[in-house]
Amino acid sequence: MSILEIALASQIWARRHEKRRQAFDERDGLTILSRTAFAIVGFTLLIAGLNAAAGRPQVVAQHAAPVVAGR
């Protein structure tokens, strides 16, 4: 049995034996908000790290693009 099959069987077993909550709790909203914020911050740091590693830091343009300035 491969690792993927074991993981899938474990997931199916866990879903069958979990107890479902019926009501939306206030903590659920805070959890969703905190996870979303964590994902956005993590993704931003990942992109910033990749740009820094590539030697291309993202900066705000200090002058107009040459194509626009030539018109």
Supply the key terms.
71 residues, mainly alpha
Per-chain topology:
Blueprint: H1 3-17, H2 26-53, H3 66-69
Description:
With 71 residues, the protein is mainly α. The protein has 3 helices and no strands. It has helices at 3-17, 26-53, 66-69. The mean pLDDT is 78.
Describe the structure in brief:
The protein is mainly α and 71 residues long. The protein has helices at residues 3-17, 26-53, 66-69.
Strand content: under 5%
Structural class determined from secondary elements = mainly alpha
Using only C-alpha atoms, the radius of gyration works out to: 23 Å
Major sheet attributes: none
Q: Uncertain regions: pLDDT < 50 for 5+ in a row?
A: none
Question: How far from one another are the termini?
Answer: 66 Å
* Shape field: elongated
Element-by-element helix/strand order: HHH
Instruction: Supply the number of helical segments.
Output: 3
Mean pLDDT: 78
Residues in helix, %: 55-70%
Report the strand count: 0
